[in-house]
Write a structure and sequence with these properties.
The protein has two helices and two strands, in the order βαβα.
Length: 45
């Protein structure tokens, strides 16, 4: 998946967070959006 780009909405928790982490672990470039910037920062770390 290294040549793939994904946009994940609701990425700060739940299903969106899991999808974002799964895609990133497979090498995709992942762009995240969420209502809470603070919670989103935890996902990036």
């Amino acid at each position: 998946m290294t040549s793939r780009i994904a946009l994940v909405t609701g990425a700060s928790r739940g299903l969106g967070r899991g999808i974002a982490r799964g895609l990133a672990s497979r090498g995709a470039t992942v762009y995240l959006t969420a209502r809470s910037e603070d919670a989103l920062g935890e996902v990036v770390d």
